[in-house]
């Protein structure tokens, strides 16, 4: 079984931002389609939420999980906190972050990198045995040492 919680915030916006979004909605057909899909998913499936999970809820879900899917925001090149937490807990990771392959701790048995446009989940990866990886590099002390080298 799985758990999906897609966070799509709806914040109060200034008049300028609100006006620009309305212009995008009417000028760019793809934006209009995107908003329709988001709204449809919210209404029909309930997987897209406008609120976040509490720390306790996230911790409880991660404790029960075998594998965590982490999709960083566009333009992020470093590791997300979710990746660090997951690997530190011995959980497998599926991510679109190709840069993780350059890390010393990278292990293809624990970390699966997928294409963000061809989202194909390999069930044999998820169900395969977890292996221990050296997460020493994930500790803040190791990170600071690397930063100041």
Q: What is the mean pLDDT?
A: 80
The poorly predicted ranges are none
Q: Quick one: how many beta strands? A: 5
Q: What oligomeric state do the depicted chains represent?
A: single chain
Strand order of the largest sheet: 3-4-5
Structural class: alpha/beta
Radius of gyration: 18 Å
* Apparent shape: globular
Strand content is 5-15%
**Main beta sheet, described?**
3 strands, parallel
| Gap from first CA to last CA | 44 Å
Secondary-structure element pattern, one letter each: EHHEHEHEEHH
| Helix share, percent | 40-55%
The number of helical elements comes to 6
Features:
three-stranded parallel beta sheet, alpha/beta, globular, two-stranded parallel sheet, 40% helix, 149 residues
Molecular structure report:
It contains six helices and five strands, in the order E-H-H-E-H-E-H-E-E-H-H. It is an alpha/beta fold and 149 residues long. The strands form two sheets. Strands 3-4-5 form a three-stranded parallel sheet, covered by helices on one side. Strands 1-2 form a two-stranded parallel sheet. Strand 3, helix 4 (81-88) and strand 4 form a beta-alpha-beta unit. 7% of the residues are buried. The model has no long low-confidence stretch (mean pLDDT 80).
């Amino acid at each position: 079984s799985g758990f999906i919680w897609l966070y799509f915030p709806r914040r109060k916006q200034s008049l300028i931002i609100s006006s620009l979004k309305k212009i995008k909605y009417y000028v760019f057909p793809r934006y209009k389609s995107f908003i329709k899909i988001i709204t449809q998913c919210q209404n029909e499936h309930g997987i897209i939420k406008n609120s976040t999970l509490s720390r306790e809820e996230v911790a409880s879900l991660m404790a029960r999980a075998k594998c965590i899917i982490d999709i960083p925001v566009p333009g992020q090149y470093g590791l997300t906190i979710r990746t660090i937490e997951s690997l530190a807990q011995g959980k497998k990771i599926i991510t679109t972050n190709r840069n993780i392959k350059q890390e010393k701790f990278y292990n293809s048995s624990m970390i699966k990198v997928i294409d963000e446009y061809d989202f194909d989940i390999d069930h044999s990866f998820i169900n395969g045995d977890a292996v221990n990886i050296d997460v020493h590099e994930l500790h803040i002390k190791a990170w600071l040492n690397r930063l100041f080298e």
